[in-house]
Amino acid sequence: MTATDNVHPQEIHKFGSMAERWWDEQGEFKTLHDINPLRLEFIQRYAALEGQRYVDVGCGGGILTEALARHGADATGIDLSEDLIDVADLHGLESGISVHYQKISAEDLASQQPESSDHVTCMEMLEHVPNPGSIINACAMLVKPGGMVFFSTLNRKPKAYMLAIVAAEHLLKMLPKGTHDYKTFIKPSELCQSARACGLTLQGMVGIEYNPFTKQFSLSKDIDVNYIAAFQREY
Questions:
Q1: Which of 80, 61, 178, 82 is nearest to 129 (CA)?
Q2: C-beta atoms surrounding 22 within 10 Å
Q3: I need a surface site. Which of 4, 68, 165, 209 has the fewest CB within 10 A?
Q4: Do β-strands 74-79 and 100-103 pair in parallel, antiparallel, or remain unpaired?
Q5: What is the pLDDT of residues 34-49, one digit of tens each?
Q6: What Cα–Cα distance (Å) separates residue 229 from each residue in 13, 67, 125, 153, 204?
Q7: CA 107 to chain centre
Q8: Residue 108 host element (H or E)
Q9: Chain segment 82-116, per-residue pLDDT in tens
Q10: DSSP code at position 126
Q11: Burial of 172 (0-12, 13-18, 19+ CB in 10 A)
Q12: Distances 48 to 23, 51, 70, 71, 185 between C-alpha atoms, Å
């Protein structure tokens, strides 16, 4: 499968059409803003930020990418939605934080610049492409030997369907309806198998849990719904 094939055009359109609302912290993407500090906390358990080069694959409007740069990283965000890249660029100009954005696939960037990044992040993207294994392989190619690759996605378990789709999208309206498709969710065992095949070794994995009473997210041992994993590229 080529990089051109590894995309659902409807997914690009779906998220791109909401680009102007990406940075509304009380809007449809409030959840992404709320969990972003937890992502950073997890990343910093395994990798430094200051002075390190990061590539954020599937960066969307740049919420994580900009946060990485704010903490001293040399951050590049890549996405295939021109609308989202434009919004990310604009917000970077408004915030005064220096971030590099590029409309390019992970596969093409890996082909052009192999082993060019100290660390790679790929958050909430694998479940939105036809071939997640191709993205995992591209991330492994992008990172330098010994560097870290971070993935977050959703577990394909009935609990994830009930909480991430029924509750989050339809009952609590925390996410736009149609954000997720259960059949594209990825079990941790599947993620780890694909990662191992690309020379990535699991270093740690945690869940991201939501408390509907406090309306707060936290890192958790429960990986039944959202989870985030750290892998290291072998030398």
A1: 80
A2: 22
A3: 4
A4: parallel
A5: 999 999 999 999 999 9
A6: 28, 19, 13, 9, 6
A7: 15
A8: helix 106-112
A9: 999 999 999 999 999 999 999 999 999 999 999 99
A10: G
A11: middle
A12: 26, 8, 13, 10, 29
